Amino acid sequence: MIDTVLTNGEGAGTGIVLTSNGIVLTNYHVVDGSTSIRVKVGSGSTYSAKVLGSDPTHDVAVIKLSGASGLQTASLATSSALLGEKITAVGQGGGLGTLYKTSGSVTATGQQITASDEGTGSDAETLQGLVQTNAQIVPGYSGGPLVNSSGKVIGMDTAASSGSPITGYAIPITSAVKIANQIESGTRSSTVHIGPRAALGVEISTQSSSDNGFGTSNGQTTSGASVVGTMQGGAAAAAGITAGSTITSIGGKQVTGPTTLTDVLETKYPGDKISVGWVDAQGQSHTATVTLGTSPEN
């Protein structure tokens, strides 16, 4: 069971133990935005954990438990899920600190869905090649195993429909483990990020810049990402970016809103240098090259 502390609350999910020394597979969305991670394994022992790496595009992450040894590992299937086969999904249902199981069967394979955060509808992502099941997967099961009748993990629980009856979806374990192996080897790619994330050190408004009242000296609003605060000692503050500024470009790309900023930073690492353009609260334009810091969030 994986429990996380976020900047704006808490989260809960599940993981699959891959190695006896505490390498654990889970969904990226289980640890996304977390500032600390606690994991309780089947024996009852609790560990702190850090993210080794992730692939947000495929919703896969690998975490390492601190000081773990002698853990029981999952038995992984090497073949694909079969239509109609009986399965059991296991997970921390509702994030209540207990592992639950729900049974069903594989109702389809190779499925594509667009998944988003429950309630907010944010962070939408398209996932492909999924195993579909009628097992009643609920929030908290994410990152947990989908197990066949032989006790082998055939998938990683990832998403479910919000309506009833529930339709659940899992990433095939062969696909997830292939990404996990790449993360363990420390191999970066266009989708796989290894280690800590880069930070510009700004707090961005969730509203569009045209709604925030900041404008240029001629009264025209500026398209971009609106800065409502900066981190002391961060890259943005060092460059002179202040609350009331609007970031208009980063890394040579025009910034049309917070998502553009996030997408560019997702491809960068702490210590990378990047160009930033912004308009200050008085309407003056600036550009600078900054050295990105380390994000406190996963």
In round numbers, the mean pLDDT is 92
Using the alpha-carbon principal axes, give the shape: elongated
Annotated CATH topology of the largest domain? Pdz3 Domain
CATH architectural name of the largest domain: Roll
What is the top-level CATH class of the largest domain? Answer: Mainly Beta
Give the total of beta strands. 22
Strand content bin? 35-45%
Count up the domains.
3
Number of distinct helices: 4
Assign the structural class, choosing from mainly alpha, mainly beta, alpha/beta, alpha+beta, or little secondary structure. mainly beta
Radius of gyration: 21 Å
What characterizes the major β-sheet?
Answer: 8 strands, antiparallel
The ordered H/E elements are EEEEHEEEEEEEEEHEEEEHEEHEEE
Q: What is the helix fraction of residues, given as a range?
A: 10-25%
Q: Can you put this structure into words, describing what you see?
A:
The protein is mainly beta and 298 residues long. It folds into 3 domains: 2-73, Trypsin-like serine proteases (Thrombin, subunit H); 86-173, Thrombin, subunit H; 198-294, Roll (Pdz3 Domain). 10% of the residues lie in helices and 41% in strands. It contains 4 helices and 22 strands. Strands 1, 2, 3, 4, 5, 6, 7 and 14 form an 8-stranded antiparallel β-sheet that branches. Strand 3 (16-17) and strand 4 (23-26) form a beta hairpin. It is elongated, with a radius of gyration of 21 Å. Pfam families: PDZ, Trypsin_2. Keywords: Hydrolase, Protease.
